[in-house]
Structure formats: C-alpha cells, structure tokens
Specification:
This protein has 8 helices and no strands. The protein is mainly alpha-helical and about 190 residues long. Helix 2 packs across helix 4 and helix 3 crosses helix 4. The longest helix has 15 residues.
C-alpha cells in the first residue's frame, strides 16, 4: 500500500504531528499515513497488514485513514465532530417544562415533588415525546436542574415539633457515644 503525497511538505508535517500529538488514536492516524507514504525502515512500500501490525491497529483502520488522506489530504485526518441526535423538545416546549418544574406539582396530584418516572410520564402526556429515565435526567441536567434535592417536607409538618424531636433524640455533642473502636486489620 503506497500513499502518494498530496503536497511535498506533508511528510515533514506528519513527522511534526506525530511528535507533538498527545492523543494516541490521532497520532496513530498520522503514523499510518506516514508509513504508507514513506515506508518503514529500508522498505519503501508495505502492505496494509504490515502497516497495521507496526501501528497496532486493524487493517480497516489503515484502509480508512489512508483513503481519507488520499481524498482530502492532511485536513481529512482530523475526524469531524458528530452532531448527535436532534433534540426532541423544541425551545418552547423546554420553556414550558421549566415553568412546570418551577411551579411544582398541583395540589390535586397529591405529590410533594416531581421525580424522574413521574416527569417521564408527564412529558409523554404533555408533549407526546417518549424519553427513557436516563434521558429525562440528561434533559433536566441540560436545562440546569439537578436531580439531587433535599427530601421534600410535608406542608402540614409542624416545625416546632420537629425541632423538639431533634433536641430530644439527637444530642449535639459526641460525648454520648462510646469510645472509638479500632478497625480490624484483615
């Protein structure tokens, strides 16, 4: 397998890129093309199996990146960022969801707060979109919400009774505790 240089300066640039690139996969892309272009040692041309063995990658890896160099030059050796899946909710729907989260559940629902499974169901009912539970948590994170929150307090809870309970059952100092015990050495 031989790669003809698109530009006479490519060989020198590839040598510099191999020396300066910290990303191992990207460095291997450069090395594959460099070996295909100039050979290895005293052999001016190697087959793809030998190039793959020299770099420690597969034959398909060699074919892909040498082919990309042949069609697009050095610029084609840097992979393009993949766009990912399109958002399921529009910006307006996301704003509606944020408003719903800020308002909290209505009293007739009998809920103290929304959780992931409930939000998943509500998004399906309100917007007609299906999310996995993990997808709901990723959506909340992207919208700036954190799924970790303090346990909700019941609206009818008495703060004075709660404080009295804490004073009676939770001593503020650790003198009531026994002596420290050693951890086992096993």
């Amino acid at each position: 397998m031989k790669a003809d240089w698109k530009d006479p300066a490519d060989e020198r640039q590839l040598l510099d890129l191999v020396a300066s690139t910290s990303n191992a996969k990207q460095r291997d892309r450069y090395r594959v093309v460099l070996i295909a272009g100039r050979g290895l040692g005293d052999e001016p041309e190697l087959d793809r199996e030998r190039i793959a063995a020299a770099v420690g990658r597969s034959r398909q890896f060699v074919d892909e990146w040498v082919g990309r160099y042949r069609t697009g030059g050095l610029a084609a050796l840097v992979p393009k960022r993949q766009p990912g899946a399109a958002r399921r909710l529009t910006a307006g729907q996301e704003a509606d969801l944020c408003a719903m989260l800020e308002a909290g559940p209505p009293p007739e629902d009998g809920l103290a707060a929304y959780n992931g499974p409930i939000l998943r169901e509500r998004i399906g009912q309100r917007f007609g979109k299906t999310y996995s539970l993990n997808g709901v948590y990723k959506l909340l994170h992207r919208l700036g919400y954190n799924d970790l929150m303090p346990r909700p307090r019941h609206p009818a809870a008495d703060p004075a009774a709660l404080e009295a309970f804490k004073k009676r059952n939770c001593p503020s100092d650790s003198r009531g505790c026994g002596p420290p015990t050693r951890a086992s050495a096993s």
